[in-house]
Specification:
Elements: E1 26-32, H1 36-47, E2 52-56, H2 62-66, H3 69-89, H4 95-109, H5 115-120, E3 124-134, E4 137-146, E5 160-169, E6 173-175, H6 183-186, E7 203-207, H7 211-223, E8 226-231, H8 241-253, E9 257-260, E10 264-271, E11 278-287, E12 292-295, E13 297-300, E14 304-306, E15 339-341, H9 352-368, E16 380-382, E17 387-392, E18 402-407, H10 412-416, E19 423-428, E20 434-441, H11 444-456, H12 461-465, H13 475-488, H14 493-511
Parallel strand pairs: 1-2, 1-5, 2-3, 5-15, 7-8, 7-13, 8-9
Antiparallel strand pairs: 3-4, 4-5, 6-14, 10-11, 11-12, 16-17, 17-20, 18-19, 19-20
Helix pairs in contact: 1-9, 3-4, 3-7
This protein binds flavin-adenine dinucleotide and nicotinamide-adenine-dinucleotide (NAD).
The site of nicotinamide-adenine-dinucleotide (NAD) has 27 residues, from α7, β8 and β16.
Domain Pyridine nucleotide-disulphide oxidoreductase dimerisation: 378-481
Binding site for FAD: 73, 171-173, 344
Cofactor: FAD
């Protein structure tokens, strides 16, 4: 992906470059997994001059490229366009065209994440499944390699061993599927398999209320499916409640039935009622509260499970938490000091940008012996319409913490585009320090970079207010929230007394001392 090399540090030739790698070589960094974290971690290591081998069992690019960010953002864009066309011309979208657009986007981005691109960056790529067998030793089953001199893939099904100084575990996560009676027999899709649907489901039940459920629920509703979203929590539990209310209202306007604080109790195949024969492909979800939901497709979007089983981590003393995540410290090092981890396999929030940044930090810490800590400023965006973008604190908790909110109803760009639903809310600490905030509206995510910069650099509302912003932009909402706070400070009694006294002093200076005769 084009943005990923940005995470890679400037080249420092800390290790001798190896022209050709053989199995007898001791490599500097073994990277297990070729998703975002693996790609960025391996490229960082190769740029440092380290002998780096990346092992991928399926396809490089990982979730983000094949089943995550890229297809989901593409389908959201196609669905938004489809909804506009339906409204303007009454034309229904062609699902085949939508599928073609998704694969075209993946095909365009894929070369940047390919084994060839990694090889070009100096990484040796192996195809196979890796596991640790002893300290400093990993086994790659069904191995096949590009760039491994006359070794791997030569013996069918044989495992290959590889000696390493340090390793980076970046094996990602997979969809968690709750145990619901009847679900396995009746069938369901997850964010891994929904992309294989060849027809738009007339009815879709989405189980879950997180970003996957909201994004895909809205996309399929806009494409024409009748969608019911069922979550045992509220929607987007981590987000500002006012932002969530806007997302829920928008989903409902798109025709999504939102059922919250309820969950599936069982699933079975529908019968046609008279002779008990099974209706082709129709599933019935009965909820704990007793609702009966029928759909051709059930999407499970109830969180993720880290992929650590069978990796041999225990053998190396690598601690995992109860959910299976590799436990890492702030430098991304595990309880075994030669093993680092990053991305979805850790308990950090599951975002591509975080996977990339953390893997880069892990690789440079491992290879250069640094103790660089990862930042706690973590931006996130849910790409529904309206978008919800947030970073740092999103609520005023604690003494002296306040919020400043500007509605898009007072933001001219939003008014010119007839899209005034949303707001910018800053959370502000003592002396006007920006602690975080939430931006909601069209392209809210595009303004999040500025807010993240402010939070990460401990900027104040006065500093943000002091920067001229071009007019009209959606960004004006964020800017005006800072201006409102910074100038609101001027209204406080203490500041009024001080500025009054200062103004008096300036007037007196201009007039000169009282004893002097006036010029007039
Ligand atoms: C539908 C959806 C939408 C998303 N949208 C966004 C978004 O808009 N923005 C965002 O920031 N994030 C988004 N995410 C999250 C993002 O996709 C993940 O956080 C990111 O892909 C994690 O990258 P990773 O490298 O840790 O793991 P992965 O991408 O899962 O890569 C892990 C790789 O390791 C390989 N592997 C596993 N075990 C082994 C082994 N033993 N040997 C060899 N190889 C192995 C796997 O085959 C896989 O390729 C989305 C996720 C989903 C599911
Ligand atoms: N825009 C983005 O950055 C983006 C988009 C999609 C996914 N992601 C990442 O992928 C990860 C997974 O997303 P997700 O939406 O699957 O998970 P999530 O963990 O964010 O949300 C899971 C949801 O499922 C609900 N749930 C769990 N079990 C349930 C059950 N049995 N019945 C009904 N509801 C149930 C929970 O209440 C919650 O609402 C997220 O952590 C996120 O970081 C990011």
């Amino acid at each position: 992906m084009v943005h990923r090399p940005g995470y890679v540090l400037a080249p420092v030739l800390a290790f001798p470059l190896l022209k050709e790698l053989t199995v007898d070589d001791l490599i500097d960094l073994l990277v297990i997994g070729g998703g975002t974290a693996g790609i960025v971690g391996a490229k960082t290591a190769a740029r440092l001059g380290a002998r780096t081998v990346l092992v991928e069992q399926h396809r490089t690019g990982g979730d983000c490229l094949w089943t995550g960010c890229v297809p989901s953002k593409t389908i959201l864009s196609a669905a938004a366009r489809a909804a506009m066309i339906r409204e303007a011309a009454g034309i229904e979208p062609d699902f085949d065209k939508v599928r073609e657009r998704i694969s075209a986007t993946i095909t365009t981005i894929e070369p940047a994440d390919s084994p060839a691109a990694l090889e070009q960056a100096g990484v040796t790529v192996m195809h196979g499944t890796a596991r640790f067998v002893a300290p400093g030793l990993a086994e790659i089953s069904d191995a096949a390699a590009a760039g491994m001199a006359g070794t791997a893939g030569s013996i069918d099904g044989a495992a290959q061993r590889i000696r390493f100084r340090q390793a980076l575990v970046v094996t990602g996560s997979f969809p968690s599927v709750p145990e619901i009676p009847g679900l396995e027999d009746t069938g369901y899709v997850t964010s891994d398999t929904i992309w294989d649907l060849t027809e738009l489901p007339p009815r879709l039940v989405v189980i879950g209320g997180g970003p996957i459920a909201c994004e895909l629920g809205q996309a399929f509703a806009r494409l024409g499916s009748e969608v019911t979203l069922l979550a045992r929590s509220g929607l987007l539990p981590r987000e500002d409640p006012e932002a969530v209310a806007l997302v829920q209202a928008s989903l409902e306007r798109d025709g999504v039935e939102v059922l919250l604080h309820d969950q599936p109790a069982r699933v079975h195949a529908a019968t046609d009622g008279r002779d008990g024969t099974v209706s082709a492909g129709v599933k019935v979800v009965t909820t704990a509260a007793g609702r009966r939901l029928e759909a051709e497709v059930v999407l499970i979007a109830t969180g993720r499970t880290p992929r650590t089983k069978g990796l041999g981590l225990q053998r190396l003393g690598v601690e995992c938490d109860d959910a299976g995540h590799v436990v890492v410290d702030a430098t991304m090092r595990s309880s075994n000091h030669s093993i680092f981890a990053a991305g979805d396999v850790t308990a950090h929030p599951k975002f591509t940008h975080l996977a990339g940044v953390h893997a880069s930090t892990a690789a440079s810490n491992a290879l250069l012996g640094l103790r660089r800590r990862v930042s706690s400023t973590i931006p996130r965006i849910t790409y529904t319409s309206p978008e919800v973008a947030a970073v740092g604190h999103t609520a005023a908790t604690g003494p002296g913490v306040r919020t400043s909110t500007v509605s898009l109803e007072h933001t001219d760009r939003a008014l010119t585009e007839d899209a005034a639903e949303g707001f910018a809310r800053l959370v502000i600490g003592r002396r006007g320090r920006i602690l975080g905030g939430t931006l909601v509206g069209p392209r809210a995510g595009e303004s999040l970079g500025e807010l993240s910069l402010a939070v990460a650099n401990k900027l104040t509302t006065r500093q943000l207010a002091g920067v001229t912003h071009a007019y009209p932009t959606y960004n004006d909402a964020l800017w005006n929230a800072a201006v409102a706070h910074a100038s609101g400070g001027l209204d406080s009694p203490a500041v009024k007394t001080a500025t009054g006294a200062l103004a008096g002093l300036v007037r007196r200076r201009r007039r000169g001392p009282k004893s002097q005769p006036s010029d007039r």
